[in-house]
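Problem 12. The chain below contains 121 residues. Write out its predicted structure in token notation.
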Amino acid sequence: MKTFFWLVVIVLLVLTFSDHKSIKPYRDKAYDFLVEHVAIAADDKEAALRKTRKQLLQLAEQWGDSQRQYLEKHSASVDSLLKFRRSYCLNNDFNPILFGEPLRQSCDIIEQNYDNLIRPD
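Solution.
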């Protein structure tokens, strides 16, 4: 019982001072990790969509605004993301905004998360 008490005290202290600049980056990483993996384990398509969208937008930060906006639009829903995959990743249709390496990297991210995006509800 004594160890449980100290554990609770430590957790409360961490939560109290978690906005401190030296602790905040670690707290944010831990929170993102938990949200991402717990939601995916629950077979939630929306969680898979959020994860895929986050990865795509992080990748698009190094590209132009039109490419980022294009990915934002096409990753807004599971259906639009699956249409994007079918058209540009599988059928190799020409995409005037995303082509070459950016398109390949986007398709790789979608393929990594594809199984979670198509899971039945």
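Discussion. The mean pLDDT is 79. Students who got a different answer should revisit the alignment rule from Section 12.3.
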